[in-house]
Amino acid sequence: MHHRRSNRRISLKGAAVTAVGTLLLSACGRGGGGEAAPSPSRSSHIICAEEGKVAGSGSTAQQNAMKHWLQEYQSACPGVQLRYSPIGSGGGVAQFLRGATHFGGSDTPLSEDDVEFSRRACPGSRAIDLPMVGGPVAIGYNIEGVDSLVLNASTLARIFDSRITMWNDPQIQRLNPDARLPETEISAVHRSDDSGTTQNFNAYLADAAPEEWPYEKVKAWQARGGHAAPGSDGVVSTVSSQSGSIGYFELSFAKAKGLPTVKLDTGAPDPVAVSARSASAGIAAAKVAGSGQDLTLEFDYRTSAPGAYPIVLVTYEIVCADGTPADVLPALKSFLTYTASEEVQAGLARIHYAPLPEKVASRVRHVVGTLS
């Protein structure tokens, strides 16, 4: 049964309040009913819905992937309007829970409290986490004369907690014996907004360097000192413009700015460079920790497997298991089926994201088919 909810039937204009940027797309197909009926498409992996307005907001980690998805989806299906505002994971979850959007993007799964709150946004049901796009959290830096840099979890923890403050510090030099490290002050840049990227970076440091990182695995930055910037695009812009700086953001942002990235000493035979391939190796070791339709993943941030990059995240699309308005449901299911398709996932590496393991992606597609 499909439910209509007055608190979730909103205008697209109202759904985008406070959005840093807005991405628009169109889709096509057959709507009005509960299921998205097949409709001719120029891409075999896209089944369109004829009409519907879908609002989403959240993670900036998936911002570049979303841009790519929107371009292809719009090219194939010029009909239904869908809006995604990249305002950060915290904002995306908050907007979804108060009924302002039909899906939220978050780099961390819903908390137990969030699940309870979601029962008001999803009458008779609850929200679930659907992993959709994976990727590494790159550590980008801007140090004059240094184009290769190796760090480990302990050193990163001390840098981002303002306990290592100079680039020629002996602990950094030991990891880079052949590098000419300058006597330059370190400027560590972190997110100013609540961020799933921050939470994943916190989780990595807390698990891989527990003695040096006493902070909780939460979306808000807690460490001492440093400089703050909003969104992944704000952090990467600050790092790229400020000599001596270092920051964390998704690999696609580093590639777009041409910033060098840190290789991690994980205990593997060789330091691990960040890439879509090395991130996929890290994500492949993840376990599904959710139950029922919820597909929350659990990562091993302490892996020392050769070629496995440990600072990885998955962006979840947060949706109602049941209770999405009938005039929205076909378009929402069409879009999520497309993003989880084998063809789309296989193409993510070309834009510096990591595809979901097929065993996970196939489960996502199955759950999307059950949404009502």
From TrEMBL:
Keyword check for Transport: yes
Gene3D superfamilies given in the database record: Periplasmic binding protein-like II
Record's GO cellular component terms: ATP-binding cassette (ABC) transporter complex
Cited SUPFAM superfamilies: Periplasmic binding protein-like II
GO molecular function: phosphate ion binding
GO biological process: phosphate ion transmembrane transport
Record keyword Transport present: yes
Positions that bind phosphate: S59, T60, A61, S89, D107, S195, G196, T197
InterPro entries referenced in this protein's UniProt entry, alphabetically: ABC_phos-bd_PstS, PBP_domain, Phosphate-bind_PstS
Keywords for the protein's UniProt record, in alphabetical order: Phosphate transport, Transport
PBP domain location: 52-343
Family (UniProt): Belongs to the PstS family.
NCBIfam families, A to Z: 3a0107s03
Protein name: Phosphate-binding protein
Lineage: Bacteria, Bacillati, Actinomycetota, Actinomycetes, Kitasatosporales
